[in-house]
Amino acid sequence: MIFGEIGTFAKAFASFEERPGQRKMMNEVHDAFNDHAHALIEAGTGTGKSMAYLVPSAYYAKTKKKPVVISTYTIPLQEQLLQRDLRLLASVLPFSIKTAVLKGRGNYLDLRKFEHAMQQPDDDSYDVRLTKAQILIWLLETDYGDVEELNLSSGGKTFWLTVQSDGVSDLGKYNPWFSRCFYHRSRRNAQSADLIITNHALLLTDVVQSNALLPTYSHAVIDEAHHLEEAASNHFGVSTSYLSFGFAISRLGEGQDHSAIQKLLKLAKAHGLTLTLKNAEEALSLLKEDVDELFRMIHVFALGEGNNATDVGRISYVFKSFSEQGSLWQAILECAMRIQLHGEKTLAEVTQAYTLVSEEKELTYATRATLADIQAAIAMFEEQVQSVYELLLEYDDQFVYWIEAEPKGQKMPLIYMQSRLK
After folding, report:
1. Whole-number pLDDT of residue 327
2. Does residue 280 share a domain with residue 200?
3. Which letter, b or e, does each residue of 119-152 get, where b requires 16 or more Cβ atoms within 10 Å of its Cβ?
4. For residues 380 and 304, what is the distance between their CA atoms, to the nearest angstrom?
5. Pair (402, 336) in one structural domain
6. Does residue 113 sit in the same domain as residue 241?
7. What is the DSSP letter of 166?
8. 322 near 256, Cβ under 8 Å?
9. Which range marks the domain in which residue 117 is found?
10. Which comes out higher in pLDDT, residue 112 or 398?
11. Do 405 and 279 lie in a common domain?
12. Is-contact 85 51, C-beta < 8 A?
């Protein structure tokens, strides 16, 4: 017996007070699990809802030998489950349970990428050097490699994008760090877990992807379910910003020694291949100018048309691309079209060059690693080009489109364009 005046909860707490609402909710969850039914439960503050669903979830997972997925929306609730509730659960259950946490792949450090970044310190800014030192110290302590354990600066967050785990640049068996990969370790732990803690974003990704990210499961608890619609709308939407597009451009090229284009040229030369990417570099340079101009014009347009402010003080404006009037918006659309043309030209030549080099035989680990990073940079750039197209050059009435702009501040103010399901 867990609850009640003589239950294990009462023994664990000297000032234990039974909560009828908690008992009722636990029974509702238990019945829903065993009847293979849906249950929609609203629990007020102080109900003790986490334990009310964790106890029947643990019993079901243990007796049926099937995992139960627990999905949350916010990181604080996930941390509460990990640091407090699951530890308490383990102390009161008459049997042991195994729990695992699985987050989106971008939350985990890629050790191969970080090793590669440590070998290229020449162009590091102060923020990047500080972040590298921070990660080095953290690696001596972390068991999970989860970025949520770090408190990164804005520059550190940008650096993280270059060392986070992703499927595009995964070398698989060719990666010497594979056995120690934080992401794959988390997935392996989840395969044998009774309770799998995840978030709404990963849960939704698992639903639509052909390759399952979560272990096979039949029962799930959606905590903070009132945010599920918002999470789905955001997850299946599209967004871009001046900073994200600029980062994608710099990672692909823009004359930097460690850019994808320069890496491709060096690999081609090392393998005796004749390769020129002049057209791609010229197209990318023109695209960079157009991206600067596009976001400058969008900023002016948003400040002129927007009359709503977000919670963080940004000007917000909901738009329908082909319904907007005026010469400024027409100039915005023309600029977006030029970005598409320059983007397609850049991608065509860079992708062709990548294919040429990657088809070489007997590639070394270092070459495979470099090619994987190049492929990831190409994918990031292509995603940004596609986002501008979907946001400005096409319209779907099932989505809502809006712009957010900082009213003042930087030389190139922050601009965000987003769409999400209605």
Report:
1. 96
2. no
3. eeeeeeeebbebbbebbeeeeeeeebbbbeebeb
4. 31
5. yes
6. no
7. -
8. no
9. 106-175
10. 112
11. yes
12. yes
257 part of a folded domain: yes
Q: Which of 150, 145, 217 is nearest to 184 (CA)?
A: 145
* pLDDT attached to residue 14: 58
Let me know if residue 140 belongs to a domain: yes
Does residue 380 sit in the same domain as residue 309? yes
List of residues 6+ apart from 373 with CB closer than 8 A: 113, 116, 169, 260, 263
* 116 and 60 within one domain: no
Which residues 6+ apart lie within 8 Å of 160 measured at CB?
131, 147, 152
Region 60-82 average pLDDT: 90
Domain identity same for 140 and 212? no
- Amino acid identity for residue 51 in this structure: M
CA–CA dist 122, 290 (Å, integer): 30
Q: What angle do CA 296, 297, 302 make, to 5 degrees?
A: 100
Closest CA to 195 of 66, 30, 78: 66
pLDDT tens, position by position, 313-347: 778 888 999 999 999 999 999 999 999 999 999 99
Regarding whether 398 and 291 lie in a shared domain, the answer is: yes
Which residue in the block uniquely carries the two structure tokens 């234990």?
16
The answer as to whether 11 is a domain residue is: no
Q: Is 246 helix (H, G, I), strand (E, B) or coil?
A: helix
Residue type, 69: V
pLDDT digits (tens, 9 = 90+) for 106-127: 999 999 999 989 987 767 788 8
Q: Does residue 182 lie in a domain region? A: no
